[in-house]
Specification:
Blueprint lengths: L6 H20 L2 H5 L2 E9 L3 E4 H14 L8 E13 L10 E13 L6 E15 L5 E10 L16 H5 L1
Parallel strand pairs: 1-6
Antiparallel strand pairs: 1-2, 3-4, 4-5, 5-6
């Protein structure tokens, strides 16, 4: 039987994920950065891998401010959240860890046209670690955007229809 994440840890990690999304979607840098371990990193297209507070600042500045009105009104949604205990991950040290995999989508309210739409979709592969203060924080957040037909699929190629014939 596979090891499971305790209900208490799961609830605390889901709360961490909610704080992450809330801060990200409202432009709260301190709240957002506070969801990461000091040695944590984010990998996101097109910003690449962003290490520590300086890297997170570069990523959020790019997302929030490079295109006026582009980011306002977003809601990051995580669903089908899988969690599994993990030890010995790179940079984890002796901190207890939990691997998080989930689907994500972004709902977008356009503040200029007032239209609502789905902005993007993808998957998340993240490691949360329990810090010495007893709080869970993200050691790594890898965001995979579904662009150019990059969706996870373990079934047969025939599900892709004509695209499978071209592969």
């Amino acid at each position: 039987m596979a090891l499971k994440v305790s209900l208490e840890d799961r609830v605390e990690i889901e709360e961490l994920m909610a704080r992450y999304a809330w801060a990200l979607d409202t432009g709260d840098f301190e709240g957002y950065a506070g969801t990461f371990a000091e040695d944590g990193w984010l990998e996101h297209w097109p910003q690449g891998r962003c290490h520590g507070r300086e890297g997170l600042r570069r990523a959020t500045d790019s997302l929030w401010y490079d295109k006026p009105d582009h980011y306002l009104g977003r809601q990051h949604r995580m669903s089908q959240i899988l969690m599994s205990p993990e030890t010995g991950a790179e940079g984890q040290g002796d901190r207890p860890g939990v691997r998080i995999k989930c689907f994500w989508s972004i709902l977008q309210h356009d503040v200029v046209t007032f239209e609502n739409r789905v902005f993007g979709m993808g998957t998340w592969d993240t490691l949360a670690v329990k810090e010495s203060d007893g709080e869970w924080r993200f050691k790594s957040v890898y965001v995979d955007l579904w662009i150019n037909g990059q969706v996870p699929w373990q079934g047969e190629k025939r599900a892709w229809g004509q695209k499978a014939e071209m592969a």
